[in-house]
Amino acid sequence: MTDLSSSLSAVPSLQRKFETRALRSILLTTITWVSAMLASVPLFSVLYMLITRGGARLSMEVFTELPPAGFEMGGGFGNALVGTFVMVGIAALIAIPVGILAAIFLAELGPQSKLANSARFAAKTLTGLPSILAGVFAYAMVVLTTGSYSAPAGGIALAVLMLPIVVLTAEEAMKMVPKIMKDAAHGMGCTNSQVIWHVVLPTAMPAILTGVMLAVARAAGETAPLLFTALFSNYWIYDGGHINAMSPTASLAVLIYNFSGMPFDNQLELAWAASLVLVLIVLVVNIVSRLVGKTKI
Questions:
Q1: Cα–Cα distance measured from residue 183 to residue 1, given in angstroms and rounded to the nearest whole number
Q2: What angle separates helix 201-220 from helix 151-175, to the nearest 10 degrees?
């Protein structure tokens, strides 16, 4: 009887505890939803302004014409769009191979070596590097050496920003490959290079590509490094089939920076349209990275 009475008396206390936990869960869930909605207000307000003000100016003309000057009307930012793709492409050609090779060393060949620890620390430090310092570095190394602002200088500055993202994401992707798969390949007589090429890289490739695309998205929206390296131009990067890369090159980010401070309505409208296009480019790259990250090879 004593045990039964004590058990019955414990029921109300347990019920009160469950009610308290339920109320706490509801309260915290509500706070989380309210915080998420408040945090999304600036994002959706910016998107609304971009769509309403930038979308009104979008047309085929803005993608094919050169930027207008002064009181001129019309025009576009076709050269800035091409210049952005060229410089991001140069940065990708530099950062992706170097980053993946570095990640192979960090994850597979010498993960605990002093060189690997130093490289890993340097990569983590570079992720927090202010982008303007990457521009200063490329300015000192390329612009002063060649004597001219250029697309390769801008590409190198963007590559400095892309490299740590590629290295760290690729290393983590390779570490996630199950050890049993690598042991099985070694048991079949495969060498280290064969295991890396035929097992580790194909298995980790979706995650590696996700990191690569995120790095590309970051590079596409950078402005400060390009002010020091590529500057700007009102002309096409190619002329009569000849690519004039070793000269100042236009980009969407710098065009937005330049036109947003002008007192002319036409330039301000082009700045809004260029902002919308840049956001759409970054959005597409992020969506593709999400889809690739879910792909299984």
A1: 62
A2: 140
CATH superfamily of domain region 60-293: MetI-like (1.10.3720.10)
Contact (Cβ atoms closer than 8 angstroms) between residue 182 and residue 111: no
Q: CA 188, CA 182: separation in Å to the nearest integer?
A: 10
Residue 110 burial (C-beta neighbours within 10 Å; 0-12, 13-18, 19+): middle
Q: Where are the domains of the chain?
A: 60-293
Q: Are 138 and 225 in contact (CB under 8 A)?
A: yes
Report pLDDT for 3.
53
- Phi/psi of residue 242, nearest 5 degrees: -105, 125
Please, which residues have CB within 8 angstroms of residue 222's CB and are 6 or more apart in sequence? 131, 157, 158, 161, 253
Most confidently predicted of 115-119, 137-141, 192-196: 137-141
